[in-house]
Amino acid sequence: MKFLIVSGNPKKEGLCADITAIIENGARDGGAEVEVLTVGGLARCHVCGDGWGICRDENKCAFGGDGFDEAQKKMEEADAICLVTPVYWWEVEESLKGFIDRLRRCEFSFLSPDGALAGKQTLLVTSAGGSGNGLLTALEQLDRFCQHVGLTVFDRFGFNRWNHGYKKPAVYAAARAIAEGQVNGATVV
Ligand SMILES: Cc1cc2nc3c(=O)[nH]c(=O)nc-3n(C[C@H](O)[C@H](O)[C@H](O)COP(=O)(O)O)c2cc1C
Question: What CATH number has the domain bearing residue 142?
Answer without folding.
Answer: 3.40.50.360
